[in-house]
Amino acid sequence: MKTKLMFLFCVLPLIGAEPAGYKYWSAAELKAFSKTLAPKVNAQKFASERLTDYGNHYTMVAHREGNGEAEFHESESDLFVVTSGTAMLIVGGTIQNGKTTAPNEIRGPSIEGGSRQKLSAGDIVHIPPKTAHQLVLEPGAEFTYFVLKVKE
Predict the structure, then answer these.
(1) What is this structure's pTM?
(2) Which residue, 44, 45, 98, 128, shows the most beta carbons closer than 10 Å to its own?
(3) Which residues have CB under 8 Å from 99's CB, separation 6+?
(4) Which fold has domain 44-151?
(5) Vertex 82: Cα angle to 81 and 84 (nearest 5)
(6) HSE toward the beta carbon, residue 132, CA cutoff 13 A
(7) 45 in Cβ contact with 65 (< 8 Å)
(8) pLDDT, tens digit, for every residue of 80-133?
């Protein structure tokens, strides 16, 4: 009997435990980031929080109250899930006056050419590596989005 009880105590913590690497974010939790990140906005009108790191990919949430810089990631894909607000995504084209800001990262003030896609809550967009992209907001607008970054 004692052996059976010991077995149960060893097994019980495993019952109902989440598998390693599993994470769930509710829609309400994601939407709440717009309120928690807004007070942390920097001079570029941007705030972000890294959420998880899984080795070849990681997650973060970002909040903007102004235009983002044009970005080019040599070795990472971006997957955006818009949780609140609206923005114009410019994708493709060429970054003007781009500078290397970190290994495999180029940033600049704008993009010449490219296509435009309006984004709003509920939209999902995938941006492959080596693709210029920039988020542009209307004055006074706010935009919050969940990001999955995949290292290629």
Answers:
(1) 0.85
(2) 98
(3) 106, 107, 108
(4) Jelly Rolls (2.60.120)
(5) 150
(6) 22
(7) yes
(8) 999 999 999 999 999 999 999 999 999 999 999 999 999 999 999 999 999 999
